[in-house]
Amino acid sequence: MAIEERENATVITHALARHTLTELRSVDTEQVAFRKGLVKLGRICGYEIIDGRMGTEPVEIETPLATTTGERVRRMDDVVIVNVLRAATPLVEGLLKAFPRARQGVISASRDEEAGRDEDGAFPISVDYVKLPEITEADTVIVADPMLATGSTMVAVLDRVLDGAPAPDALADLLVLSAVAAPEGIERLAETVPTADVVTVAVDDRLDEHGFIVPGLGDAGDRAFRTT
C-alpha cells in the first residue's frame, strides 16, 4: 500500500503517482499531456483509495471447475465523487476509471483574487452552481480539486456538500483529493472541517504572497484548458 500518513493529511507515495506529478509540474508539459496526466493521476489515486480505505470482503463464487472463495471490494456502489469545476474535470475522469459506478456531483466555485486575502489568509469564494446526488451514511464521498491552496474554496465546497447530508462523522468516509496541497490549506481544513481527510500526492512548501502553491504546478485549470 503506497500511502503515508502525515499530520492532517494522507500522502499517496505510489511511484507512478510521483512520476506523473513530476510531469505535471514541468513547464514543458503542454496542454494535451497535462490533461492526460491529470486523468492518469486520478486513476492511480482512485486505486490507492480503494486499497487503503475500502478493503475487500470474501465472496463465494463458482469457477468452471469448483466452488471457491474470492474477494470483492467493499462499498464500490456507495461512492460519491464531487467535481469542483473546472480544474477537477480531468482528475475526476481518472477517478471514474477506478469507480465506474460512482454517483457524481458538480460544484462551480472560485476565489475572488482581486479582492485579495483577508487577515486569516482566506479568499472570498463565489459558488455559482451546485448539483449533487443524494448522500447517505453508507457513502464514501470524494471531493476532487487538483490544488488545495489556502483551503478557502474547499471549505466553501464542503459546506455545500454537507448541507442536507448526514453528519460528516456518520459518513463511511469524507475525502478531499488533490494533486498538490499547501500546509496552509491542510491546516484550514483540519480546523474548519476536521472530519474531512485530505488525500494528496504531495504536500508542497508554502503559498506565495498571491496565495499560489510553491513549487506547485501552475493553474491546473488554465493548463488543462488552454486559458489564461
Structure overview:
With 228 residues, this protein is α/β, with parallel strands linked by helices. The protein has one domain (3-56, 73-225): Rossmann fold (3-Layer(aba) Sandwich). The protein is built from six helices and 13 strands. Strands 1, 2, 5, 6, 7, 8, 9, 10 and 11 form a nine-stranded mixed β-sheet that branches. A hairpin with a 4-residue loop joins strand 3 and strand 4 (67-73). Helix 1 (15-25) packs antiparallel against helix 2. The mean pLDDT is 93.
Mean pLDDT rating: 93
CATH topology: Rossmann fold
Give the CATH level 1 class: Alpha Beta
Q: With helices defined by DSSP (H or I, 4 residues minimum), what is the helix count? A: 6
Please give the largest β-sheet: 9 strands, mixed
Based on helices, strands and strand pairing, what is the structural class?
A: alpha/beta
Shape annotation = globular
Instruction: Give the N-terminus to C-terminus distance in angstroms.
Output: 38 Å
CATH architectural name:
3-Layer(aba) Sandwich
Number of strands: 13
Percent of residues in helices comes to 25-40%
As a whole number of angstroms, the C-alpha radius of gyration is 18 Å
Uncertain runs are: none
Strand % is 25-35%
Please trace the helix and strand order, writing H or E for each element.
EEHHEEEHEEEEHEHEEEH
Number of domains: 1
